[in-house]
Design goal:
Elements: H1 3-54, H2 57-74, E1 81-82, E2 86-87, E3 93-94, E4 97-98, H3 104-111, H4 114-117, E5 121-125, E6 131-135, H5 146-166, H6 168-171
Length: 177
């Protein structure tokens, strides 16, 4: 009978260190979870900070649309794209004639370099609660902080790239045919 309590006593001492070891593992695991949660929150915070630089996505979209309108106004009239490059057995050319206004070539030419041109824009504070995107013709005579203005121009340029990437399928004129 005396040996039974010793075994039980021995089991208790063996179980206690394992429990402490698992507590250490849980503690380390909790610290890891806490650190990853903090990192996650910081990354979300930084994303919102970057998004705050855009200030208003509608205003940024309007600035991109305004630059696209400028490109459309500079566009010269073009002929249809003649894609008829084969002859049939009767000597008639086969293929399509595509209206340039509805062609993928036009979309590519208009959008190519659009986001680089957005680097000419910066965010200007109108009043305490409102900001607008303006096109800067001369960065040297800019009255606001030039370093901050350049940072805003990079922000809208990268926003333009994301916007075009997200709407790529809708912009493609071939999807309307």
């Amino acid at each position: 009978m005396a040996q039974a309590p010793q075994v039980a006593q021995h089991e208790k001492t063996v179980l206690q260190p394992q429990k402490k070891s698992s507590d250490r593992i849980r503690s380390t695991s909790n610290k890891t979870k806490m650190a990853s949660s903090i990192l996650w929150l910081l990354s979300i915070f930084s994303i919102f900070t970057i998004a705050a630089c855009i200030d208003d996505n509608c205003a940024a979209c309007n600035a991109v649309a305004a630059e696209l309108e400028i490109q459309l106004s500079k566009e010269k009239p073009r002929n249809h794209l003649d894609m008829r490059n084969r002859l049939d057995s009767k000597g008639q050319r086969q293929g399509k004639v595509i209206d340039y206004r509805m062609s993928e070539l036009r979309a590519v030419e208009l959008l190519d370099g659009l986001c680089e041109k957005m680097q000419d824009y910066t965010l200007e504070k109108i009043d305490s609660s409102r900001r607008v995107w303006i096109k800067v013709d001369n960065w040297e005579i800019l009255t606001i902080d030039k370093q901050e203005a350049k940072a805003h121009s990079k922000d809208i340029s990268s926003y333009c790239g994301r916007l075009l990437e997200e709407t790529e399928d809708e912009v493609n004129p071939q999807s309307y045919l």
